Sequence to fold (118 residues):
Amino acid sequence: MRYTTTFRHALEGLRYSFLHERNFRIHTVFAAVALVLAWALHISATQWLFIITAIASVIALEIVNTVFERVVDMFQPRVHHYAGIVKDLMAAAVLVAALSAILVGALIFIPLLITRLS
Fold:
Protein backbone atom coordinates (compact mmCIF):
# COMPACT_ATOMS: atom_id res chain seq x y z
CA MET A 1 0.00 0.00 0.00
CA ARG A 2 1.31 3.41 -0.88
CA TYR A 3 1.75 6.11 1.73
CA THR A 4 -0.57 8.46 -0.14
CA THR A 5 -3.31 5.82 0.00
CA THR A 6 -2.77 5.31 3.72
CA PHE A 7 -2.85 9.06 4.29
CA ARG A 8 -6.04 9.30 2.22
CA HIS A 9 -7.67 6.64 4.42
CA ALA A 10 -6.63 8.54 7.54
CA LEU A 11 -8.17 11.73 6.16
CA GLU A 12 -11.34 9.80 5.36
CA GLY A 13 -11.44 8.70 9.01
CA LEU A 14 -11.21 12.33 10.12
CA ARG A 15 -13.92 13.27 7.62
CA TYR A 16 -16.18 10.48 8.88
CA SER A 17 -15.64 11.56 12.48
CA PHE A 18 -16.44 15.17 11.69
CA LEU A 19 -19.55 14.36 9.64
CA HIS A 20 -21.01 11.66 11.89
CA GLU A 21 -19.87 12.40 15.42
CA ARG A 22 -21.39 15.41 17.19
CA ASN A 23 -18.84 15.29 20.03
CA PHE A 24 -15.98 15.24 17.52
CA ARG A 25 -17.36 18.44 15.98
CA ILE A 26 -17.69 20.03 19.42
CA HIS A 27 -14.09 19.13 20.28
CA THR A 28 -12.95 20.46 16.90
CA VAL A 29 -14.67 23.81 17.49
CA PHE A 30 -13.09 24.17 20.93
CA ALA A 31 -9.72 23.18 19.48
CA ALA A 32 -10.05 25.87 16.81
CA VAL A 33 -10.96 28.46 19.44
CA ALA A 34 -7.95 27.44 21.54
CA LEU A 35 -5.62 27.64 18.53
CA VAL A 36 -6.89 31.09 17.52
CA LEU A 37 -6.59 32.31 21.11
CA ALA A 38 -3.08 30.88 21.37
CA TRP A 39 -2.09 32.62 18.15
CA ALA A 40 -3.68 35.92 19.23
CA LEU A 41 -1.98 35.84 22.63
CA HIS A 42 1.43 34.91 21.16
CA ILE A 43 1.97 32.05 23.58
CA SER A 44 5.43 30.56 24.03
CA ALA A 45 6.72 27.47 22.23
CA THR A 46 6.37 25.44 25.42
CA GLN A 47 2.79 26.60 25.86
CA TRP A 48 2.10 25.66 22.22
CA LEU A 49 3.37 22.16 22.98
CA PHE A 50 0.95 21.81 25.89
CA ILE A 51 -2.00 23.16 23.90
CA ILE A 52 -1.31 20.98 20.86
CA THR A 53 -0.77 17.88 23.01
CA ALA A 54 -4.02 18.49 24.89
CA ILE A 55 -5.95 19.01 21.65
CA ALA A 56 -4.42 15.95 19.98
CA SER A 57 -5.17 13.79 23.03
CA VAL A 58 -8.84 14.75 23.07
CA ILE A 59 -9.30 14.38 19.32
CA ALA A 60 -7.45 11.04 19.19
CA LEU A 61 -9.38 9.62 22.14
CA GLU A 62 -12.66 10.76 20.61
CA ILE A 63 -11.76 8.80 17.47
CA VAL A 64 -10.81 5.72 19.54
CA ASN A 65 -14.10 6.07 21.41
CA THR A 66 -15.96 6.06 18.09
CA VAL A 67 -14.06 2.94 17.02
CA PHE A 68 -15.05 1.11 20.20
CA GLU A 69 -18.67 2.20 19.80
CA ARG A 70 -18.81 0.97 16.20
CA VAL A 71 -17.16 -2.35 17.04
CA VAL A 72 -19.55 -2.98 19.92
CA ASP A 73 -22.51 -1.98 17.74
CA MET A 74 -21.43 -4.47 15.04
CA PHE A 75 -22.10 -7.37 17.39
CA GLN A 76 -25.63 -6.41 18.37
CA PRO A 77 -27.98 -8.01 19.32
CA ARG A 78 -25.48 -10.51 20.79
CA VAL A 79 -23.80 -7.91 22.94
CA HIS A 80 -21.94 -9.05 26.01
CA HIS A 81 -22.96 -7.38 29.25
CA TYR A 82 -19.52 -5.71 29.30
CA ALA A 83 -20.29 -3.85 26.06
CA GLY A 84 -21.96 -0.98 27.90
CA ILE A 85 -19.09 -0.85 30.38
CA VAL A 86 -16.57 -0.66 27.51
CA LYS A 87 -18.49 2.25 25.99
CA ASP A 88 -18.69 4.00 29.36
CA LEU A 89 -14.97 3.53 29.99
CA MET A 90 -14.08 4.99 26.61
CA ALA A 91 -16.40 7.95 27.23
CA ALA A 92 -14.69 8.40 30.60
CA ALA A 93 -11.27 8.44 28.92
CA VAL A 94 -12.43 11.19 26.57
CA LEU A 95 -13.90 13.11 29.51
CA VAL A 96 -10.63 12.92 31.46
CA ALA A 97 -8.69 14.15 28.42
CA ALA A 98 -11.19 16.96 27.78
CA LEU A 99 -11.14 18.10 31.41
CA SER A 100 -7.34 18.07 31.48
CA ALA A 101 -7.31 20.06 28.21
CA ILE A 102 -9.61 22.63 29.80
CA LEU A 103 -7.24 22.83 32.78
CA VAL A 104 -4.21 23.26 30.49
CA GLY A 105 -6.04 25.98 28.57
CA ALA A 106 -7.09 27.75 31.75
CA LEU A 107 -3.57 27.67 33.20
CA ILE A 108 -2.14 29.12 30.01
CA PHE A 109 -4.85 31.53 28.84
CA ILE A 110 -6.28 33.01 32.05
CA PRO A 111 -3.03 34.67 33.24
CA LEU A 112 -2.36 35.99 29.71
CA LEU A 113 -5.91 37.35 29.37
CA ILE A 114 -5.74 38.99 32.81
CA THR A 115 -2.44 40.64 31.87
CA ARG A 116 -3.84 41.83 28.53
CA LEU A 117 -7.05 43.17 30.01
CA SER A 118 -5.42 45.03 32.90
Q: What stands out?
A: The chain has one domain: 3-117. Residues 83-117 form the longest helix (35 residues). The radius of gyration is 17 Å. Residues 58 and 98 are 6 Å apart (CA to CA).
